[in-house]
Every structure is written in C-alpha cells, then in structure tokens.
C-alpha cells in the first residue's frame, strides 16, 4: 500500500425519489482542508494519465459509472510501487491521494463515468507535473 493513500468506504442512503451519496465531511480521515471541488467526465475506454500534484491532496469519488485508478509511487524511499483501485457504485468509496503520487485513470462504464475531486488547494497548472501515458510503463488492457 502506498504511504498516506487512503480508501474510505462511503455510505449510500436509500431515499424515495433518489439516493443520497456521501462524499466527504470535515471529520473524515483524509480531510486536509477544502479549496475546490470539481467534476471530471471520462468516456468508456478513455485513459487520462499521468499527473502528479506537488502540494495538492486529491479526494476522489465516483458517483456515476466505474473508473479504474492506477497510482504510481516513484519517490526515493520506495521502489516504483503501483496500486490499482476500481471504484463505482458497487465499491463506493473515496480515494485520498497525497502529493507526489502519479495518478492515471480509465473509464470502465459503457455509459461514461464521472468523478468528483474535493481538493485542499485551488487548481494551479504550475502545481502539477504531467507525463505522457507511455512514460510510465503500465498495461492498461488488463
């Protein structure tokens, strides 16, 4: 398991007319402040990789569809460690990804997917590093 990476199970409350799906509250582990929340869509089979934030902590939730997340830790004290997690309604949870971890994700739902990021910092293009998908070797077809 990658250090400081958390998988937090979330509750779904069945209510007439539509469910209530928890995201995050101030008392949750992984909460490191709030600055911005945004949604990102991902099409079936699409892969968005690789990005690493230098200071931002990501808190990712998938309220619609199914997304495969791949984390890659290449910090000096570890040995190029990968970790995969698929989240969807069937595995409804929040991923807390600390700074300096590479992340990529793949849409697995035929009808498209959506993720919510609850970030502790406002997005700043200069705060993140990016690599081409081929720069970190990973078999996305599995």
What labels describe this entry?
single chain, globular, 46% strand, 5-stranded antiparallel sheet, 142 residues, mainly beta, Jelly Rolls
Number of helices: 0
Instruction: Give the DSSP E fraction (strand runs of 2 or more residues).
Output: over 45%
CATH homologous group name: Jelly Rolls
CATH architectural arrangement? Sandwich
Question: Which consecutive residue ranges, at least 5 long each, have pLDDT under 50?
Answer: none
- What's the SSE pattern? EEEEEEEEEEEE
Look at the helices and sheets and give the structural class. Answer: mainly beta
Can you list the strand order of the major beta sheet?
Answer: 1-9-6-11-4
CATH names the topology as Jelly Rolls
- Rg to the nearest angstrom? 15 Å
- The helix content is under 10%
In angstroms, what separates the terminal alpha carbons?
20 Å
Q: Tell me, briefly, the overall form.
A: globular
Can you give me a brief rundown of this structure?
With 142 residues, the protein is mainly β.
Describe what you observe in this structure.
With 142 residues, the protein is an all-beta fold. The protein has one domain: Jelly Rolls (Sandwich). 0% of the residues lie in helices and 46% in strands. The chain is built from no helices and 12 strands. It has strands at 6-9, 12-13, 20-21, 36-42, 47-53, 58-64, 66-73, 81-88, 93-97, 102-107, 113-119, 128-130. The strands form 3 sheets. The protein has a 5-stranded antiparallel β-sheet, with no helix packed on it. A 5-stranded antiparallel β-sheet has the order 8-7-10-5-12, with no helix packed on it. A two-stranded antiparallel ribbon has the order 2-3. A hairpin with a 7-residue loop joins strand 7 (66-73) and strand 8 (81-88). The chain starts with 5 loop residues before the first strand and ends in a 12-residue tail after the last strand.
């Amino acid at each position: 398991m990658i250090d400081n990476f958390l998988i937090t199970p979330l509750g779904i409350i069945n209510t007439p007319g539509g469910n209530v799906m928890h995201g995050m509250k101030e008392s949750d582990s992984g909460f490191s402040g709030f600055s911005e929340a945004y949604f990102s869509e991902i099409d079936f089979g699409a892969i968005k990789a690789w990005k690493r934030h230098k200071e931002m902590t990501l808190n990712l939730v998938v309220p619609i569809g199914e997304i495969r997340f791949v984390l890659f830790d290449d910090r000096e004290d570890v040995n190029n460690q990968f970790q995969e997690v698929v989240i969807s309604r069937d595995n409804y949870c929040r991923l807390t990804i600390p700074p300096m971890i590479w992340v990529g994700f793949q849409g697995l739902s035929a009808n498209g997917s959506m993720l919510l990021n609850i970030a502790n910092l406002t997005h700043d293009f200069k705060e993140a590093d990016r690599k081409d998908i081929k720069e970190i070797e990973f078999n996305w077809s599995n």
